[in-house]
């Protein structure tokens, strides 16, 4: 089995868990390849029983069985471009805090590897959104698992965002910005501004304003096969556009078009895990903290 390890940050407290990971994979005869920048961070703290391969580009790891993302949800978002549309299953091992996507804790890591080698796991497909226009501002990375966000480029003026669904006018949002979120992104930035939580299989997107100037405006859920068109108005000439962890400035003269991406990603879930148990655990639903 060929397994790729992707990470971005390292702390000394991670060493015992990473050592367990590499030892467990070595014992099972896995071919391991590590993201080079991450390897450089950990190489003096981990004893490798066999020298792992290194990669810097997605074309170097096209023939792999799994990608292990080591860190939090932000790390997984940065890992997704390396698997692109290959359909490679991604296992998120959470060394961070909340971890909706990185669902396996560091203490569950060894058991998760056992499940994978036994074939005792589930694959959960997640929808992405794609930036159709303007084209090429992020190159081939024109997709997002969580959300696309338009945000003011200064701290003083509101953004007026006109939104059309399949050519039909929806609303003009006067706000600090606007979020277009997938079901996966519904538990991220969208949730923090009052958006609803969508289950992963929902064929929907959420449109949620950030600090709306009109208090009667609320997030809205639309079908994900719709084309979303956006026109920006306001005093500034440029605004910030983000797709997950990528960002760029965009002119208000540029019209934005968004569609559902033509591929999905596969997240590895352990047999005992499901979306509802995850949100209960992460959001402390049903927990009474009064005592």
How would you explain this protein's 3D organization?
This protein is of the alpha/beta class and 291 residues long. The protein has two domains: 2-121 and 270-283, Probable inorganic polyphosphate/atp-NAD kinase, domain 1 (Rossmann fold); 128-262, Sandwich (Tumour Suppressor Smad4), CATH 2.60.200. The protein is built from six helices and 18 strands. It has helices at 15-27, 36-42, 73-83, 109-118, 189-192, 275-283; strands at 2-7, 31-35, 53-55, 66-71, 89-94, 104-105, 122-133, 143-144, 147-152, 159-165, 168-175, 177-181, 204-210, 220-223, 228-233, 238-243, 246-251, 256-269. Strands 1, 2, 3, 4, 5, 6, 7, 8, 10, 11, 15 and 18 form a twelve-stranded mixed beta sheet that branches. Strands 14-13-12-9-16-17 form a six-stranded antiparallel beta sheet, with no helix packed on it. A hairpin with a 2-residue loop joins strand 10 (159-165) and strand 11 (168-175). The radius of gyration is 20 Å and the shape is globular. The mean pLDDT is 90.
Total beta strand runs = 18
- As residue ranges, the low-confidence spans are none
Order of helices and strands: EHEHEEHEEHEEEEEEHEEEEEEH
CATH superfamily of the largest domain: Probable inorganic polyphosphate/atp-NAD kinase, domain 2
Q: What is the SS-derived class? A: alpha/beta
Number of domains: 2
CATH topology of the largest domain: Tumour Suppressor Smad4
Q: What is the overall shape?
A: globular
Descriptive labels:
291 residues; Tumour Suppressor Smad4; 12-stranded mixed sheet; Rossmann fold; 18 strands; 2 domains
